[in-house]
């Protein structure tokens, strides 16, 4: 009697699965739409639909629920989506390693950033990187910490640059991440350069209560600093607020209106120098926060990511307004 083959159901699935349908699935999942995914991939909608159906047949499960507004992933679709992100990340790592092995200084680094680094530190580092390795592709994605760090942990991002998380935060405690501080930065109160408070004599904290404010979202670390600032100042939390971490949106709101806002001082300096904003004379708001970069502990850095990190450190050393943390 022949021995039973150790070939398993998982082996059968792996032999049937192809990379292209997985990439199409990932794009549909990101867009929650067959039509948008087809446009981005330069494919027809029937071709995208066929790829998804073939994938569902191979896995013997439903990946999306269809409705008039698009598609929503099933539980199995969400699970597959998390795994596919890791597969795509591994392919990027492999591509970078092969290109480096062949001797070319090329590659792709995907950077997540926050407002604390996006105005000064990261742009300077990218310029240094492009000066030494112009063929490296840099993709920048901006967002809050609760998006950036999970995306870093699952391989969607190679590095996150910005305010470092608090050590005891539940968000990152369960993630295998490593954090390196480069400098400390505080928040300051800023306004458009033509704001009525700019030329006010005997400015005091009570004057700030009557104006609309731009504040960080309620679940962000910077918002806790803002709430503490109002509490210690004896001021109520403003009722007329906009919650935003978008640097471009915030600057334009400040320039075009009477809003006040909190902004990292290193980020504000560029707009103050350009005559767009002014920092009101209140000093620093809250304790300084550590700004730096975060990477995965359980994955070696790609050559392109290593180059960017070297340029981040060099940018701090060359910029007197970003004093070296050490």
Structural notes for this entry:
The protein is of the alpha/beta class and 326 residues long. It has 13 helices and eleven strands. It has helices at residues 9-16, 19-31, 34-41, 45-59, 75-101, 115-118, 121-132, 145-153, 170-173, 221-233, 247-256, 265-273, 303-318, and strands spanning 64-67, 70-73, 107-113, 136-142, 159-163, 177-192, 213-215, 241-243, 260-264, 277-279, 285-296. The strands form two sheets. Strands 3, 4, 5, 6, 7, 8, 9, 10 and 11 form a nine-stranded mixed beta sheet that branches. It is globular and about 70 Å long. The N and C termini lie far apart (71 Å). The model is unreliable at 1-12 (pLDDT under 50).
Question: What is the topology?
Answer:
Layout: H1 9-16, H2 19-31, H3 34-41, H4 45-59, E1 64-67, E2 70-73, H5 75-101, E3 107-113, H6 115-118, H7 121-132, E4 136-142, H8 145-153, E5 159-163, H9 170-173, E6 177-192, E7 213-215, H10 221-233, E8 241-243, H11 247-256, E9 260-264, H12 265-273, E10 277-279, E11 285-296, H13 303-318
Parallel strand pairs: 3-4, 3-5, 7-8, 7-9
Antiparallel strand pairs: 1-2, 5-11, 6-9, 6-10, 6-11
Helix pairs in contact: 2-3, 2-4, 2-5, 3-4, 7-13
What's the short story on this structure?
It contains 13 helices and 11 strands. With 326 residues, the protein is α/β, with parallel strands linked by helices.
Strand count:
11
Approximate helicity band: 40-55%
Q: Helices and strands, in N-to-C order?
A: HHHHEEHEHHEHEHEEHEHEHEEH
- Rg from Cα: 24 Å
User: What percent strand?
Assistant: 15-25%
């Amino acid at each position: 009697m022949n021995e039973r083959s150790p070939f398993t159901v998982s082996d059968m699935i792996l032999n049937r699965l192809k990379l292209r349908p997985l990439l199409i699935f990932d794009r549909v999942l990101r867009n929650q739409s067959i039509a948008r995914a087809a446009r981005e991939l330069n494919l027809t909608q029937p071709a995208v639909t066929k790829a998804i159906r073939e994938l569902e047949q191979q896995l013997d499960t439903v990946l999306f629920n269809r409705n008039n507004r698009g598609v929503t992933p099933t539980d199995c679709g969400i699970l597959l989506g998390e795994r596919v992100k890791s597969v795509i990340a591994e392919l990027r790592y492999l591509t970078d390693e092969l290109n480096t092995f062949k001797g070319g200084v090329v590659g792709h680094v995907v950077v997540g950033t926050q407002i604390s680094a996006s105005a000064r530190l990261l742009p300077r580092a990218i310029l240094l990187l492009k000066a030494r390795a112009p063929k490296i592709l840099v993709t920048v994605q901006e967002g809050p910490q609760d998006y950036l760090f999970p995306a870093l942990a699952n391989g969607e991002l190679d590095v996150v640059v910005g305010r470092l998380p608090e050590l005891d935060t539940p968000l990152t405690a369960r993630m295998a991440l490593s954090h390196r501080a480069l400098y400390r930065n505080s928040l300051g109160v800023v306004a458009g350069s033509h704001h009525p408070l700019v030329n006010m004599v005997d400015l005091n904290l009570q004057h700030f209560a009557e104006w609309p404010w731009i504040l960080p979202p309620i679940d962000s670390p910077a918002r806790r600093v803002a709430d503490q600032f109002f509490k210690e100042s004896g001021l109520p939390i403003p009722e007329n607020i906009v919650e935003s971490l978008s640097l471009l949106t915030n600057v334009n709101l400040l320039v075009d209106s009477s809003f006040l806002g909190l902004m990292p001082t290193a980020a504000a300096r560029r707009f103050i120098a350009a005559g767009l904003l002014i920092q009101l004379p209140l000093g620093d708001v809250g304790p300084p926060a550590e700004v730096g970069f975060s990477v995965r502990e359980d994955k070696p850095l790609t050559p392109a990511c290593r180059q960017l990190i070297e340029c981040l450190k060099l940018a701090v050393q060359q910029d007197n307004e970003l004093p070296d943390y050490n």
